[in-house]
Amino acid sequence: MSNTTTVSVAGPSQGVKAPSGGSEVRAATSVGVTSSPFWSTGIDRLKAYVPGEQPQSDGWVKLNTNECPYPPSPLALAAIREATSEKLRLYPDPNGTALKAAIGKQFGLGSDHVFLGNGSDEVLGHAFLGLLKHELPILYPDISYSFYPVWCGLYGIAYKLVPLNAEFGVDVADYAQPNGGIVLPNPNAPTGTALSLEALRTLLQANRQSVVLIDEAYVDFGAQSAAALIPEFDNLLVVHTLSKSRALAGLRVGFALGHPTLIEALARVKDSFNSYPLDRLALVGAQAAIEDTAYLAQLTSAVIHSRDWLIAELAGLGFDTLPSQANFIFTRHANRLAATLLAQLREQKILVRHFTQARIANHLRISIGTQAECELLVQALQRILAAQPDQKNEVSA
Ligand SMILES: Cc1ncc(COP(=O)(O)O)c(C=O)c1O
């Protein structure tokens, strides 16, 4: 259990501060301005999330945003094609009735336990506003999904960072402190390590007074879903996405599972913002993808196989990689700077992700590509490492 807790610098007296947004925040607009009299109050102080690069030209090996390297389920594509019809003149079902029923069936829950959103980012954003804005600060790991501080900034939610332990893992005992909610990605991002269901149960048993949100964007790549605990805990919200294991990042579908009381708060936020977050194509495509469980198993086992191969190959090249239960790995080289490797890989048209936050500034997060892409990465790293004698590592992380 770690003994230090970072309190984000917030309100001057409270020790909980206007969220800083971490390292990946937007300082100025694309036209270079930082404020304008036309803007509503506070917009100049927003620190927006900066998504990973989406190159606009071909020929890149894209291992930077944790997409699936394989195509979506053929059944999902067929359903989308079929729905591309004159019916697009009509609004979609605002409640996503059929999709909710399909998701509920997969998890053994009623449709009233399901909430749908335009990607899990929208679901998470609604949860921050609808369930996590209280007097006490919410808790989440110091190294975690960099959108969380952005929502805190947008909605004025106080937060407190709980340090990962020395092995970059989550110790649930560190969360036994007063809070307005707990947010944990499981597996964590960008580290890729996961908590067991038993650890999550321990966390929930110790924390019945506020919402515990488990962000399971990567759960299908080897971790256990907390959805099984929903009947036991009415304060548990589990959030999923179809962007990773179901290869549908471009369709923008995410969902939450939880007690109907929690779902109702999300529905109120949604219907105060946009009644139709999922279009007709997304609704049918997502339903077919959710129902195609055989294809999901095929995709995830291919990714897991390449992940394990890549970790072993990188070890041979002097990389130290955290155990991963996600579709990405978090790795550092014994004596090469991550920022330099990032640039050298980019020169070879391979994109990976680097975060400048102090504790992880010498790590790279690498999404698992196809087996062929993983092999290209290893070959590129072999060339890079052979081209220069070892440098002394200048970053301690
Ligand atoms: C931990 C985590 N949660 C949520 C998301 C959002 O996924 P999406 O909005 O594509 O569903 C991501 C995206 O990378 C993520 O890493």
Write the layout of secondary structure elements.
Layout: E1 61-62, H1 74-83, H2 97-107, E2 114-117, H3 119-131, E3 138-141, H4 148-155, E4 159-162, E5 182-185, H5 197-205, E6 212-215, E7 236-241, E8 254-258, H6 260-270, H7 280-291, H8 293-316, E9 319-321, E10 328-333, H9 338-347, E11 350-351, E12 353-354, E13 364-367, H10 371-387
Parallel strand pairs: 1-11, 3-4, 5-6, 6-7
Antiparallel strand pairs: 2-8, 7-8, 9-10, 10-13, 12-13
Helix pairs in contact: 1-7, 2-7, 3-6, 8-10
Task: Explain how this protein is built.
With 397 residues, the chain is an alpha/beta fold. It folds into 2 domains: 75-291, 3-Layer(aba) Sandwich (Aspartate Aminotransferase, domain 2); 295-387, Alpha-Beta Complex (Aspartate Aminotransferase, domain 1), CATH 3.90.1150. The protein contains 10 helices and 13 strands. It has helices at 74-83, 97-107, 119-131, 148-155, 197-205, 260-270, 280-291, 293-316, 338-347, 371-387, and strands at 61-62, 114-117, 138-141, 159-162, 182-185, 212-215, 236-241, 254-258, 319-321, 328-333, 350-351, 353-354, 364-367. A 5-stranded mixed β-sheet has the order 2-8-7-6-5, with helices on both faces. Helix 2 packs parallel to helix 7 (280-291) and helix 3 (119-131) crosses helix 6. The longest helix has 24 residues, at 293-316. Bound molecules: pyridoxal-5'-phosphate. Pyridoxal-5'-phosphate binds next to helix 3.
